[in-house]
Amino acid sequence: MFELTPQVQFALEATRQAAMLTAQIEKELVSAALTKEDRSPVTVADYASQAVVAAALQRAFPNDTLVAEEESGYLHQPQSKQALQLVTQYVRRLEPTADENRVCAWIESGNGKAEGRFWTLDPLDGTKGFLRGDQYAVALALIEDGKVKLGVLGCPKLDPDGRLQANGEGALLIAQLDKGSWITSLRNPQTFRRLQVSPQADIRQARILRSFESGHTDADRIQAFAAWLKIQAEPLRMDSQAKYALLADGQGELLLRLLSPGKAEYREKIWDQAAGSLILQEAGGKITDLRGQPLDFSQGRTLRNNRGVLASNGILHAQALAALQAVGAVPED
CATH assignment of 6-194? Predict the structure, then answer.
């Protein structure tokens, strides 16, 4: 079992509160008539989630650094006045002293340096999923000297038994280095269940998890990859680091994050991978880039030394790397 240290207590409660707040925002602001172009609920949820976690961090560990996705500049613009008012209203549900200045200051505190010991946060991972009513997550991790020591995911649309539920309990996952990966209810956290990856050793039977959005991967190469390995099952498309939760729980064997055509120079952001990668590894899985190199969290706000992501149950990792090479999915540089 993981150790209930002050850092663990903070990470669990801050992630839980932020995830439940994003679920409230989704319920109240996202409607069936919402157009794809209208991202205002995403804006409110993103900023409110980051403000809540940042405020909690300042209380718990005032000297710790936060490296988060959002900056407050947008909220200072005249056209963003209504958004800032909404963000402040939602933050005040958890932080009664919140006002617009405090909210912006909390958000801006996420602009810390990614060096030494720091926390990294994706306040709303899976924005398109959020708008569709599908999977999204709040992802928080503690990194020390380039190593992920603690990772927590709050997944409002994933139940603690691993089912994808639109209106269920939600799931709260935690991994502590060398202490395993665990899952419990987001709404009513009590008993934690230990996670374990799938024991599947026949790669033809592998279930692939991939991003829902084609712009986040290379769908044609994933199809070629599956054909090369004679995998019959269609890939499961879903948003956010909730994919790592399913992989860690044995509900898939491979996760692919290939380089999208036209975005060959893209580098993953650390907050998009830190929490999920540790949750997978502590459940017995393996994660590397497409060249088989470990993810390097010591290079600032991006995984500068890595290209793409391959995650697996461990057993199938070497075969998957070979197949990626065979279908030309491995960057040359």
Answer: 3.30.540.10
